[in-house]
Amino acid sequence: QGKFTLLRDTRTDGSFLVHHFLSFYLRAGCKVCFVALLQSFSHYNVVAQKLGVSLAAAKERGQLVFLEGLKSCLDLLFGEEEQPGQPSPLQFLSTSDLRALFDFVRVSLTPAGGDSWKSPVLLVDDLSVLLSLGAAPVAVLDFIHYCRVSVCCQLKGNVVVLVHGSEDSEDEENELVVNSLCHHSDLILWAEGLATGFCKDVHGQIKIIKRLSLRQAAQQDLVQIYQYKIQDRNVTFFARGLSAAVL
Amino acid sequence: LVFTEEDKYDLYSNLLFKYFLAEGIVCGHDLLVASAKEHPDNILKELPAPLLDDTYGKELGDEAAAVKSEDFQDSMKIAWRYQNLPKMEASPTTYTKFGHYYDISKKMSPELYQSVKWHSFYLHEELSFEPKMKTCNMNSGYARLLQSIQRIISQEGFDGSDPQKKQRNVLRIGIQSLGSVLWGDDVCCSDTPEDMHSLTKFLYVLRGLLRKSLSACIITVPAHLIQNKAIMERVTNLSDMVVGLESFIGSERETNPLYKDYHGLVHVHQIPRLNSLICDVSDAKDLAFRLKRKLFTIERLHLPPDLSDTVSRASKQDLAGSAKLLSSGCGAMAMGKKHLDF
Asked: What PANTHER family does this protein map onto (chain A) (predicted)?
């Protein structure tokens, strides 16, 4: 509880981790606020159904608050004038100010009367898109900081965020955000494409870094590396070099 | 959302663009053509004529007989799925009936392209109208294009807003040379453009529009002119499928014997991963294209046999170097910059 998990991908697509966490927390009975900036609701719904969770049903019963970025931005740009009391969470498209987004998150995760869900969870897919849409890196970091204070500390919930980025990327703003978030995360799940090239049986490798050094001064971070293969309904993990294709 | 990086002289990517539109006409889809470079009417007049199945089948049969059977003779078939994205199919010997073939030496007849409903957006004609939507600090050319697309989608009912309409059709959108100076964007002009975010904001909103409606879109972008690589990375993240065409014209690869049969390389940087955890990755990673008199084909690149006796050491290393670059070419899964020593 109260943990900040960073999902990071380099040279490959780490969105399978997002799908995993989404269905994991929904099944655990937590209230989830999902800020889905990159894909449509039906995409996540179809994948979640393969993983055994129905997003539509979760939305119905109020367990899932889904912000569909693509749809909201269309409403913002092409819709009628919004009411002054309710700014759209995607207002940063015109004002570069992420406060409305934070307010949306805070309001949706604050427990209302009659809620019986367990700890709240904020899930973001993905943060790098905010930079593409005009937010400054410092604003993005501030937003995450506010979310952490509100969700992790005040509401005792968890935050899971996905970012893209590689070590030799040319996108300096993105690198700034990613590096800063790495320093503040409790757990980092880093999905990378294999350095040796594409392989049909091993889709990539995942590094799991438990940042024990954050909590206690003398501790070292625990790093585990596995390789994985993504299938239609699940992902199999195995130790390096021990893929089923090789054994 | 298919994102195509143009080759330097925009010869081949233009062809790909025209194929996309021609396929739309033959399938009876509606079209929207947007350009700042050429008037869309002219673009439509230049589309290749479709080949009737029987004549093409015969031609293919003749060709196949003349070629060794163990060659990877992948003919190009751009197969279109209705939920957005083209999938590149490279089946060696079976010519499945998905998609159509075109003869680029002939132009499409006016009756054919007038049989579908098509819309055009030519930037320089639209400049007089003021955009009615909130532009969100986006380049005004892009804003107008978005407004036009949104208007067509809602008016023609591609987003399902008109329940009366029984027959639902697909809208194919083709946008030419996005990001070039002609659209008023200076992304191609300098390393630190004034307006870094217009292109990415445009793509994000376009993605939203495509997801909300029955449409598919191809964009060609002069990627070689965009000096700020950060923008290219962001754009790749925002697109579903990214294909780059690298032509050999004017580069030293033109005379490289490795590439003598081909006119350029096809780099598939990203393939769509929609509605599923996995994506459909084909085995063929090294693809090259070639422009024959009537046909534009994309084939698997294979090394020609090394038959000459007088190959000097330098050129052998050269070939090996470019072969290594090829096999690590697909950035979607991994890109190994380190050369492995064997």
From this structure: ELONGATOR COMPLEX PROTEIN 6
Cα–Cα distance between B270 and B279 in angstroms, integer? 10
Which secondary-structure segment (H or E) carries B230? helix B229-238
- Full set of structural domains in chain B with CATH: 6-51+99-160+171-239 (3.40.50.300)
Instruction: For residue range A17-58, list pLDDT tens digits in order.
Output: 888 888 888 888 888 888 888 888 888 888 888 888 888 888
Residue that has been written with the tokens 């294979």 in this structure: B302
Contact (CB<8Å) B276/A47:
yes
B334:A74 CB<8 A: no
Q: Which residues contact B13 (CB under 8 A, 6 or more apart)?
A: B4, B5, B6, B7, B220, B245
Alpha helices in chain A (DSSP H): 15-27, 41-50, 55-60, 69-78, 92-95, 99-109, 128-132, 137-147, 172-184, 212-215
Distance from CA of A28 to the nearest CA of B (A): 21
- pTM, two decimal places: 0.76
Positions of E strands within chain B: 2-5, 30-35, 48-50, 77-80, 86-89, 102-107, 118-122, 171-175, 215-221, 241-247, 264-270, 287-291, 296-300
A196:B340 CB<8 A: yes
Q: Do B230 and A170 touch (CB under 8 A)?
A: yes
Question: Which of A94, A90, A45 is closest to A70 using CA atoms?
Answer: A90
Q: What is the set of domains in chain A, with CATH numbers?
A: 3-80+88-239 (3.40.50.300)
Structure tokens at B175: 């946008």
Q: Over the stretch B176-206, which tens digit does the pLDDT of each residue have?
A: 777 776 666 666 666 666 667 778 888 888 8
ipTM score: 0.85
